[in-house]
Every structure is written in structure tokens, then in C-alpha cells.
Write a structure and sequence with these properties.
Blueprint (H helix, E strand, L loop, with lengths): L2 H13 L3 E2 L2 E4 L13 E9 L5 E8 L4 H9 L3 E3 L1 E3 L2 E3 L1 E9 L23 E4 L13 E9 L5 E6 L7 H9 L2 E3 L1 E3 L2 E3 L1 E9 L4
Parallel strand pairs: 8-15
Antiparallel strand pairs: 1-6, 2-5, 3-4, 3-8, 6-7, 9-12, 10-11, 10-15, 13-14
Length: about 200
């Protein structure tokens, strides 16, 4: 391999992010109050220590009573800590919840322009609402892990909650969300976002 090719590989390796985002290891979700007329999106910025422990949950968008569900749930979550240049570091993680009403049609909720999250988390610029599956029965929630590149582009999405008949609908919706990338030291970095989708059986 020539000197030019070696130099190019060196430059590319130096440009590649050395940051590895925090990733959920265990994430129980508290009992969700299904019998409520409330619906919409809850967004939270979660502080995670260099040991993977949640220390703070800052609510960016509030929809009671689901805000309390997310706060109580996330405080019990444990993460594999973020790493920067191989060293475990503190970081922030985005957690969102989209809570459908008990009806078949639900218009896409808007992300408020006045919200002012920090640049440390990826932030949704567009959302998609999962349809209530035609062959499903009852109510359920699905927790999705979304892996995002340095540019905020989807690289993967997977279900991290117990299997339900609503998983495919939630996965399709999660893939329809778009994000502004997370930043660290004024540079975009890869990240994970965690989305809870609540389905309530239509009346």
C-alpha cells in the first residue's frame, strides 16, 4: 500500500468518532394507566453516570399522567456506560413516549418549536404514529431502541421489551422518526434513543 493510501486511512481513522454511546442493559416500564383520555408525546433527557446509573430525568415535553410513568421507570434503568477513547464517561440519553388514545385514528403530534433540549441528546425533528394493528386485541406498550449514526440517521431499531402483537407496528413507527444528531465537544456523535409506544384498544 502506498504512502498516500496509508495517509488517507490515517486521516479517516482520526476523523471517525471514538465515542461509544450509553446503551440500555435493563429497562423495566412501570404500570401504565390505560384508562385515561390523555394522549401525546413525552420527551425526557436522562443523565447517565460513568457507571451507567441514572441520576436525573429532565422532562422536555409533558403529558400527564404518562410523564410520571417515564420518570419512575427511567430512574430504575441501568446502562452500559458511554465510552470516549475507551474511557467510561458521563452522558445523556433521550427517552420518548408516544401514547395513543383509545381510537383508531390519531393525528401525528407536533414537536413544539419552543422546546430547548441540550445538544447532548439526539432530538426528534419528525415523528410517526403507529397504527393499532388490525388483528391485535387489548392494550400494550412496546419499548424500542433506535441506533443513530453521527448524522442522526437510523442504523438499526429493535424491540427491548417483552414480545407482544404490537411489536411490528411500533418498529415501523420508530423507523419513521427523524432526529437531529447528538453532539459532544461540539462534534456530532453516534447515539441511542429509547421510544415507548403505548397502544390502547379502540372503543
Amino acid at each position: 500500500m502506498g504512502k498516500f493510501a496509508l495517509g488517507l486511512l490515517l486521516v479517516l481513522s482520526m476523523q471517525r468518532s471514538t465515542f461509544e454511546p450509553a446503551r440500555l442493559e435493563s429497562g423495566p416500564v412501570e404500570a401504565i394507566p390505560y384508562r385515561t383520555a390523555a394522549a401525546g408525546i413525552v420527551l425526557a433527557e436522562v443523565s447517565v453516570t460513568d457507571r451507567g446509573v441514572v441520576t436525573d430525568v429532565q422532562i422536555l415535553k409533558d403529558v400527564a399522567p404518562f410523564t410520571e410513568v417515564i420518570q419512575q421507570s427511567v430512574r430504575r434503568w441501568r446502562f452500559a456506560p458511554a465510552r470516549d477513547k475507551g474511557r467510561m464517561v458521563e452522558t445523556h440519553v433521550l427517552v420518548g413516549g408516544l401514547f395513543r388514545p383509545a381510537m383508531l385514528l390519531f393525528p401525528e403530534p407536533k414537536i413544539d418549536v419552543e422546546l430547548n433540549p441540550s445538544s447532548k441528546v439526539p432530538f426528534p425533528t419528525g415523528v410517526a404514529v403507529p397504527p393499532y394493528p388490525p388483528n391485535a386485541v387489548g392494550s400494550a406498550y412496546v419499548l424500542i431502541e433506535v441506533k443513530l449514526s453521527e448524522d442522526g440517521v437510523h442504523e438499526d431499531a429493535r424491540v427491548v421489551s417483552p414480545k407482544t402483537g404490537f411489536d411490528d407496528s411500533a418498529l415501523d413507527a420508530a423507523r419513521g422518526w427523524s432526529f437531529r444528531p447528538a453532539m459532544r465537544e461540539n462534534k456530532p456523535v453516534p447515539s441511542y434513543a429509547y421510544l415507548i409506544f403505548l397502544f390502547r384498544q379502540p372503543n
